[in-house]
Amino acid sequence: MAAGYGQLLRTRYAARLLAGTLVGRLPNATGPLAVVLFARAEGGSYALAGALSAVYGLCNAVGQPLLGRAVDVYGQPRVMLPASVLSALGMVLLAVVGLDPLPVAYAAVAMAGFFTPPLEGGLRALWPGVLGRADRIHAAYALDAAAQEVMFTVGPLLVTLCVAVWSERAALVVINLLGVLGALSVVVSPPSRRWRSAPREAHWLGALRSGGMLVVLGTYFFVGIALGSIAVAAVAYADEHGGGMVSSALLSALGAGALLGGVVYGAREWPGEPENRLRVLIVLVALGFVPLALTPGVLGMTLLAGLAGLFFAPSLACAFVVVDRHAPKGTVTEAFSWLVTAFVVGSSVGMTVEGPAVEAGGAAAGFAVAGAGGLAALAVMLTARRFLPPLAAPTMTVATGPAAAENDRNDADDPGFRTRHQA
């Protein structure tokens, strides 16, 4: 297993692109927390801090697919680096101005959220040209999904460290400076500079005109609801079981399970078509979420949280492959960015509905929301299966020289969504 991932990371540019993307995405992983901590340090209420964080998340969800579409049209360096700088300037503006005047603070977080560069989708668009072999791309998607768990664990710890050593204001600046450096490392690399999307058919729906894409997005919207609700339910469970570090233990177990599952999943090739495999994985994801509503003792609950996370990263890695196969030609970065948006919006909805659920029925009701989200994701995947048929593997074109820069492999129109309209 380790040898396979080692070989992947020794491929020229692979480790640099993965590391640069993870560092470049630190502002996205830590933005809501950093904004809340800064707002509270400036004397703002929890309501105001939550509102600023929500504006950041909403603008991020809107900006990702729009910037992803721009990347597909104009290339990575011309979009991602300016977007990263503008996003960082938004957070720097918030750090300098503070909460007064309040409209400027809202504008600053909106700017930071909207211009967050779509590095996640961009990396997945680069993998085929960098790795060149289908089995390595499968492993890269799994490693990517597992690495996200590390980033979303390390990121908040880094914010906390910056606050302890310097201040909440410094944390905003430092994290976003690191983000710019990470994005810069990616976009000045030869694979990023060479990459060009396939010629795209002009259509206002872009990647959303694919029926298969809509099925995956609907599924991960509900998976996002489940995971977003777990974050809040874990706090309620901790309040009922002695407080302290209980909520952190549950969330850490969830992340550890996802990390383990992603690493194991990517270590081997799996038989069958990825569309069918994704359905099986979503079944396992849903079955992992449902038992959380039993809310046993802390040890049992920690084990259930680990099991709940076990199949999340494998399902996400498989979803990357399915998105790659079903995205209309020339929309690969936009398509991956839509997947991020669907998940983020779902997570925000889950956090929103979780509050009333916990107030009405405690932690058990809160975790029941997670189970309901998992079952809803499964329902979408199964009832809409005719829009997500198995496809023949697209032909991979690998960049072998400065002029051979085409890495977008998908040239298939999606059944039921064909169009020749030229906008």
Structural topology:
Blueprint: H1 2-10, H2 14-24, H3 26-41, H4 46-74, H5 77-97, H6 102-114, H7 119-131, H8 134-165, H9 168-187, H10 190-194, H11 211-240, H12 246-266, H13 274-289, H14 298-310, H15 312-326, H16 332-383
Helix pairs in contact: 2-7, 2-9, 3-4, 3-8, 3-9, 4-5, 4-6, 4-16, 5-6, 5-9, 7-8, 7-16, 8-9, 8-12, 8-15, 11-12, 11-15, 11-16, 12-14, 12-15, 13-14, 13-15, 13-16
Structural notes for this entry:
This protein has 423 residues and is mainly α. The protein is 75% helix and 0% strand. It contains 16 helices and no strands. The chain is globular, with a radius of gyration of 21 Å. The protein starts with a helix and ends in a 40-residue tail after the last helix.
Shape: globular
> Overall mean pLDDT score?
84
The biggest sheet, with number of strands, parallel, antiparallel or mixed sense and barrel status, is: none
End-to-end separation in angstroms reads 48 Å
* SS field, number of helical segments: 16
Strand content: under 5%
Q: Which regions are unreliable across 5 or more consecutive residues at pLDDT < 50? A: 395-409, 411-423
What's the alpha carbon Rg, rounded to whole Å?
Answer: 21 Å
Per DSSP E runs of 2 or more residues, the count of β-strands stands at 0
